[in-house]
Design a protein that fits this description.
alpha/beta; Rossmann fold; 7-stranded mixed β-sheet; 10 helices; globular
């Protein structure tokens, strides 16, 4: 399967990108004599020293930065076909990132069968694209042996308290030569280490506010993390144990942690580039995208 590493870059649309120069709803020509609205000091700061500088800096300092949800979507586009029997395990209320709803609908309609399962009933009830849904634990899946030839876990593995049991269940319900795609944080990267430190020393209320500011996630979409299957080596050993072969793994370099403050964002990008040159990129790649094939039997 072709590697999609260079196919997508992180989300665009801010200072320094072509999209920033296309007039939007808020940038229509003003009538003659009408004054431009005054920006607050915070808006000026955010545009010229804050989040508004991120894309401009990325293009100049580290073009290898990507948005892993877009890379994940591209991998799924390659894998989902008319004969795909697909299980999205830990599906939540959507398969892909919010802006990729059309791609999600297209893949669901293309597959022969698309099923989602999750332990959180509220998320399952409001799923935006799947109609075949089940509420169940991932270590006790409510499906027959060999029911699927594709299973996906999108930002799920880090939340598994018993990953061995979950992967064994996936090995049971995925047919021979079927595939499992795992998209998850890299636990040995500095970003995950920093996240664990923050959770350990700051009040939960403040952490939720930080997550909302940095990742635009609501508290109800934040779940406990265990990081028990979250390095490339951990995943390789675990998947081999339950009968999967590593087919493709991509370590994704994502947006800096401090993207909201230009001086720190620039320093972080340059440091990551240095680490890659020194052969230490695995400690800076925040996300793992792995594809694993179920061993044995004829091609499904």
């Amino acid at each position: 399967m072709a590697t999609t590493g260079g196919a997508w870059r992180a989300e665009r649309g801010s200072l320094g990108t072509p999209e920033a120069n296309v007039p939007g709803p808020g940038s229509l020509p003003r009538p003659v004599g009408e004054k431009a609205p005054r920006r607050s000091p915070w808006q000026w700061f955010d545009r010229y020293l804050g989040k508004g500088t991120y894309h401009w800096l990325r293009e100049r300092l580290d073009p290898q930065i990507q948005y892993s949800q877009f890379v994940y979507a591209e991998i799924l586009k390659e894998l989902v076909a008319a004969d795909t029997r697909w299980l999205d395990a830990g599906c939540g209320h959507r398969i892909l990132e919010a802006r990729l709803h059309p791609d999600e609908e297209d893949m669901v309609s293309r597959a022969a069968l698309a099923v989602g399962c999750d332990l959180v009933a509220g998320s399952v009830r409001r799923h935006r694209s799947l109609r075949n849904l089940a509420v169940c634990c991932l270590d006790r899946l409510a499906f027959q042996d060999g029911s699927f030839n594709l299973a996906t876990l999108n930002m799920v593995a880090e939340h598994l308290e018993r990953p061995e049991a979950v992967m064994a269940e996936l090995a049971r319900v995925v047919a021979s030569n079927g595939q499992v795609v795992i998209h998850t944080p890299n636990s040995i990267a500095y970003q995950a280490c920093l996240a664990r430190l923050v959770w350990g020393i700051l009040p939960k209320g403040l952490v939720y506010k930080l997550i909302s500011f940095l990742e635009h996630r609501k508290p109800e979409d934040v779940f406990p993390t265990f990081y028990r299957a979250n390095s490339r080596e951990q995943l390789r050993k675990l998947m081999t144990t339950v009968g999967f072969l590593e087919q493709q793994v991509q370590m994704v370099f994502e947006r800096p942690v401090f993207y909201f403050f230009a001086p720190l964002s620039a320093l972080e990008m340059l440091t990551v580039r240095l680490f890659r040159r020194l052969g230490l990129g695995e400690f800076c790649a925040s996300t793992i995208l792995g594809v694993y094939r179920r061993a044995g039997g004829p091609r499904v």
